[in-house]
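batch job 7 of whatever, protein = Rpn family recombination-promoting nuclease/putative transposase
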Amino acid sequence: MTTYIDPFVDFSFKRLFATDESKPILIGFLNSIFKGRKYITAIQYGKNEYHGEHIDEGGVVFDITCTDVDGSKFIIEIQRGYQKNFKERALFYTSRAISEQAPRGGRKDWAYNLTEVYLVAFLEDFNLPDSPRSEYVQDICLANRYTGKIFYDKLGFVFIEMLNFVKKQNELDKELDKWLYALKHLTEFNKRPEYLSGPEFDQLFNLAKYANLTKEEREMYNASLKYKWDNKNVMDYAKAEGKARGIAEGKAEGKAEGKAEGRAEGLLEGERKKAVEMALKLKAKNIRVDEISELTELSIEEIEVL
């Protein structure tokens, strides 16, 4: 077992960024992203679920949502693998965060005075299809296609592509670089390095220390870590199987990918069964339903009927 927990599993991410103890960490991290444009002094955590328009549409649960003292809303999440229509999904749910600002009455007086909405997404094991591999942060807003001038600056998307972040210790020339280096290499450290100094980093390493977890928290972390590994194994196997089958059969690339996706869907169904088994074990230990949902990615409704 490493000295520090993996920050890119659900339990750890919320421990490090979504608790009262971790507010200084999140503020420091967000300020390193928006340096020069915003300076955040305080945040308040908000609801992290956005419901669908219709009862049968469902919704989405983000890892973290918070609001600063100026009313700016931040949606922060991890994406471990590429999802179909990923960009559309990001746009849809940030738009939902905007539309929910409309009051039920008095819209004339409100006059569409919108507050800012930002999505900050860690892309752990994949890249955006059209992004340059030399860049690890994609900072996107609405701009004029011809002049490049910003058209609207109250809606923004920050995609952090961890695969592209390959800087070494002596190349950390920005505060954001230090944050990303700390997060990417956290499980490799035996103690906090001196070059990652400051109260926010002190708090990060304190909360991330495995020895500081309670027995219940260790069980939750280990379950969350196992779930991440199982999912990765499924996708790695599906990719390898699809590639091997495509070569063996001499099929076209598109058809081979279709077979791989079908196999992946079947394997992911098996992973859902594992998630149910894990949920049953956690329920037996009287872990809260919402925490089980975060660890297993099953809905609260699914868990309650188990």
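notes: The two ends are 32 Å apart (CA to CA).
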